[in-house]
């Protein structure tokens, strides 16, 4: 609508500067040294919601990082959209690989480079600005509620309790989230599903102290070697995961679903070039889209043990460690998978070492219905601003709480992401396109408009 | 001899305090941040040699850390003993596992706890004090030369050049080294051989940046997983090393040699208890003594990649690294083995990653003759102070330059170590027994006495 276009054109620069300010706050939820920053970020989000026109804005404490809530109820009889996002970000390590400091946003080639620019500050803030647009132009077509949390990157451990204790306050007709990617601005897409997650940490202990590799080498099991053997055994020669029971209940796609999924444009040469790899890798019998969207995985996120400093140290380490996470698909229960992993990892350890497995966190996979009013509203909104219908795709990432919304609030979720896979989420030089940011702010009001109309309330 | 006993009893405390001062200098040769400390340590050693009575004492610069030289020529016609030792120490990491700071020596339960206490400051300094004893009591039976270097823990890269350029200055009849262990003070032993070493660093690179393990996981090779598979493949199910050609030329022991080696007292239950392991591990078909003394090994000394900080980061790392070293036995050439390893490690890498192998350093294995005058002198010296003949054993460690002495100076080496395997060499809480220290100082003069007598010069 012209009124939205005009308002947004007029406040374009402020919309950007406000985001840059948020990006300067290092709200790293995984690192307790940043607890104060995370708290300050929550306060900043609260302030922005108030300025945008939201009521009852509040920083709600939890056992971990707080959740920011705000709402605008224009008419209880109208449908209500619950917007979810997160203001916490991933750790920036390894810092030396950033071209500019992660918390000093830089705009280059039309992109904002900063940790959190795409995941998720840049994306949830589009909703704040879209809401401001509708509110200040008196065109808000429905009720809106905001729930912006601070623990998404560490598993949203305290959100379930918050949902259960605030069912009335969070009453809504749909959850709307922008925390995923589309194929490109030329080829808009909508996520129809997300993978679940089970994140584990393992500790392998051999001798009770680091040993001289000459005096003891050859006679005592080296925990780094044993850990390597254990990790190596988690995939077979076809890159199937070997944990007993891991695939039980996994829902295979129908031929139609596979066909639809693989119909999305994909250029393997470009994909490899962008990643700098000569050859792709993955489970035998599946395409790249299927491997990242519809199949479970088991990845080493980190591994360490022994001497990792400068030069040489001839030590036989006492311990070796790894962070290992599994992406899960419909049919898999993350708690059951965590148990299966722990049992298996202990079972395959030789008697010469001791193994400890600690589950970090997890979340259930989710598939969203494509025949719902909300999904149609999202498709039409994208069509209205992109000029074409979005392609339905399966996202490989995980937003553990999407399943919680359904379980606790009984709400379906629409995943309307405006990022790109190449935004370097969780990586150095994370970026978010200015066009993606503005296009999101432009598109979101149409979702509210169509959702209200289609709801016919 | 009584005169030695009296002198040493009189100066007992000073002998100890001087060692403690040396131990307070963090001469970590592998860490360039300690270059100044290493230099200061060399100067301190020089000062001590001068005080002990040595002539022509000099800190000789090299391309790396300096070598301290000193000598006492009482009569060119008498035999000359070249004492070798090293004043550099291993890095103290992991610091958090030390009960007391590594460079603030503490005496507890009759042992000196400090990095370098046994390897090798405590052991080479016994020779300085033994020399002082003989010199100040006018009982020096032969000429003595000292060569104390500062790069033993990083492969003695500059010593070969020094030997070649100082052949005359280093002219001697035998090399005497205390940098190894004996079974115990009740069961003295003499090393008859040392293993060689080939130390490598490997780097496995997958994608050109850390990736989101959800967005890309399952479709791109994870370098940490690939590195684990490559390391796992280095040993087969019998713990034989799988590198093609690795065992070529390895000299197998005769049945007699195996019998003699395994005749040394060994209590597997105590050994496991000391290490805190339920089960030993090693190459099928060999005893623990054989595994550590006579068989080559391949050990992971360090491994790292991805996110190793607090909490969880769902990253698919761009790179993974490992430090891997091989202990070598007679018949193996460390440079050839380094090449074989590098070729093999590159060869087994899948096309989905790139592999870089960097050799750190190495050294040849060594077997010392047991029928030489020098070995007899060492045996008799131990017999004189311990009251029993030492058991000949094969040491598992490496002193790369022992082979260099033979090659460049044409000298055989006697390995008269007074440490214990349980001294935590290269580990936290390294220690050296006060009894071992004083027993060494007491025993060494007898070596010079008997060596001079048996040489009959």
UniProtKB/TrEMBL annotation, chains A, B:
Enzyme class: hydrolase
GO molecular function: dipeptidase activity
SUPFAM superfamilies (UniProt xref): Zn-dependent exopeptidases (SSF53187)
Pfam families (alphabetical): M20_dimer, Peptidase_M20
Record-given protein name: Dipeptidase
Enzyme Commission no: 3.4.13.-
Superkingdom, natural source: Bacteria
Chain ranges of the Peptidase M20 dimerisation domain: 192-351
Keywords: Dipeptidase, Hydrolase, Metal-binding, Protease
């Amino acid at each position: 609508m012209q009124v939205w276009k005009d308002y947004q054109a007029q406040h374009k620069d402020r919309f950007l500067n406000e985001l840059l300010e948020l990006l300067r706050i290092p709200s790293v939820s995984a690192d307790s040294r940043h607890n104060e920053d995370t708290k300050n970020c929550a306060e900043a989000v609260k302030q922005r919601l108030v300025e945008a026109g939201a009521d009852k804005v509040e920083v709600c404490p939890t056992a971990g990082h707080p959740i920011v809530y705000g709402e605008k109820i224009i008419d209880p009889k109208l449908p209500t959209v619950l917007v979810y996002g997160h203001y916490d970000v991933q750790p920036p390590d390894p810092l030396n690989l950033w071209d500019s400091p992660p918390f000093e946003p830089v705009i280059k080639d039309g992109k904002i480079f900063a940790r959190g620019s795409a995941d998720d500050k840049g994306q949830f803030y589009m909703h704040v600005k879209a809401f401001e647009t509708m509110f200040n132009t008196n065109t808000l077509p429905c009720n809106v509620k905001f729930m912006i949390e601070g623990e998404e990157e560490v598993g949203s451990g305290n959100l379930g309790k918050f949902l259960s204790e605030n069912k009335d306050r969070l009453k809504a007709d749909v959850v709307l989230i922008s925390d995923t990617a589309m194929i490109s601005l030329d080829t808009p897409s909508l996520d129809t599903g997300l993978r679940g997650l089970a994140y584990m940490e393992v500790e392998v202990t051999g001798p009770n102290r680091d040993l001289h590799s000459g005096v003891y080498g050859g006679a005592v099991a080296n925990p780094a070697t044993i850990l390597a053997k254990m990790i190596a055994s988690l995939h077979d020669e076809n890159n199937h995961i070997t944990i007993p029971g891991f695939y039980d209940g996994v829902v295979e796609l129908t031929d139609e679903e596979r066909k639809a999924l693989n119909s999305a444009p994909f250029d393997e040469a470009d994909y490899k070039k962008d990643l700098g790899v000569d050859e792709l890798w993955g489970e035998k019998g599946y395409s790249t889209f299927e491997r990242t969207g519809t199949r479970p995985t088991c990845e080493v996120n980190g591994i360490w043990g022994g001497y990792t400093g400068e030069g040489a140290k001839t030590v036989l380490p006492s311990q070796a460690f790894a962070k290992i996470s599994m992406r899960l698909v419909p049919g898999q229960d993350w708690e059951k998978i965590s148990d299966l992993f722990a049992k298996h990892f202990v079972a395959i350890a030789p008697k010469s070492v001791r193994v400890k497995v600690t589950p970090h966190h997890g979340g259930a996979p989710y598939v969203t219905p494509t025949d719902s009013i909300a999904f149609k509203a999202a498709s039409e909104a994208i069509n209205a601003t992109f000029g074409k219908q979005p392609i339905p795709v399966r996202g490989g990432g995980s937003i553990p709480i999407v399943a919680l919304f359904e379980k606790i609030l009984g709400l379906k979720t629409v995943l309307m992401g405006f990022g790109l896979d190449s935004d370097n989420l969780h990586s150095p030089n994370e970026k978010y396109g200015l066009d993606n940011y503005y296009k999101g702010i432009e598109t979101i009001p149409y979702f509210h408009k169509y959702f209200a109309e289609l709801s016919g309330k």
